[in-house]
Amino acid sequence: MGIVGVGDKGEEGGFALGEPPRLLAPNRPNPFPDATTIQYVVPGRSSGRVPVRLMIYNILGQRVRTLVDRELTPGAYTVTWDGRDSAGIQAGSGIYFCRLEAGEASDVRKLVRMRGTSSR
Domain FlgD/Vpr Ig-like, which positions (predicted)? Predict the structure, then answer.
């Protein structure tokens, strides 16, 4: 007998055998009323810097906001999206996508904004 799978693929980030590692953790809270925290990993060798872009898109694929656009050293990072677009206007309730591009790697997560609700 061998190993069939590892992890539970649950919300906490388990993975099945052969599944590529995720660069984006699930945002917290999700759904969110006002702001949400996004944790991400920049892969690579510890001695170099990697070009990183983290963007929020709406359901139509339109870029709402760019949260990160710079070179970073490999490691774990956290950013908070305040629910505003690039013009500073509050985005409406709905489904959004967070896309991370880090060097040659990329990842996408779904975010749900529900204004006027509590995350408790």
Answer: 52-103
For residue 82, the tally of other CB atoms under 10 A from its CB is 12
pLDDT tens digits for 52-82? 999 999 999 999 999 999 999 999 999 999 9
Q: Nearest CA to 38 among 96, 104, 115? A: 96
Spatial CB neighbours of 27, under 8 Å, sequence gap ≥ 6 = 36, 37, 38, 39, 81, 98, 109, 111
The pLDDT tens digits for 18-42 are 566 799 999 999 999 999 999 999 9
Sequence-separated contacts (24+) of 13-21 with Cβ below 8 Å: none
Number of helices and strands (H, E) in the chain?
0, 6
Q: How far is CA 48 from CA 22, 45, 109, in A?
A: 20, 6, 26
What is the number of residues in the chain?
120
